[in-house]
Amino acid sequence: METLKRNEIFILLMLFSLLSAFLVTAFILMNETGESEMVPKFEDHILQKGLNGPLYVSTIDLDQDTDADILATIFHENKVVWYENKGNKSFHEHVIDNDCKQATCIHGTDLDNDGDIDIIASSSVEGIFYYKNLGTPILNGLHLMNP
Ligand SMILES: [Ca+2]
Ligand SMILES: [Ca+2]
Ligand SMILES: [Ca+2]
User: CA–CA separation, 7 vs 24, rounded Å?
Assistant: First the structure.
């Protein structure tokens, strides 16, 4: 009698394990087949080729025309740049600074609270730079503050 109960319990546990494995597999397969609209899919596009040491990128609507632009530092070229979003996956490069030695990180925000986006970037050699936005058009409208 005792042995029979053990066997029944063992069989129930095995059935439960098989059922669990089936349910987990079915859940994974259902998600892999794209049943959910929430699963993002990606397609890569090269923004700019031939850069020597692009190190950091971030996004912000720098020119405030409602689309996201891209900020980047190019470590070995000592450059701080932004890529103006021209639409249709097209971007135009604007150099903010070509003498930010070993440029590392970059971020855009309205640092002086005057309504336009300023930039802060770091150089692994020189320190942290604040590029105040001098107004529109932004091209050539940023300058290096004293580090
Ligand atoms: Ca924009
Ligand atoms: Ca744009
Ligand atoms: Ca500002």
Answer: 26
CA of 30 to the centre of ligand 2 (A): 39
Tokens of 97: 């600074």
- Whole-angstrom distance, CA of residue 101 vs CA of residue 123: 6
Q: How far is the CA of 99 from the centre of ligand 1 (A)?
A: 24
Which residue, 55, 48, 58, is CA-closest to 124? Answer: 55
Please give the pLDDT value at position 27.
Answer: 63
Query: Ligand 3: distance of its center to the CA of 114 in Å?
Result: 5
Cα 124 to averaged position of ligand 1 atoms, centre (Å): 28
pTM over 0.85: no
Question: How does residue 146 score in pLDDT terms, banded at 50, 70 and 90?
Answer: very low
Q: How far apart are CA 54 and CA 25, in angstroms?
A: 41
Q: What are the tens digits of pLDDT across the range 120-131?
A: 999 999 999 999
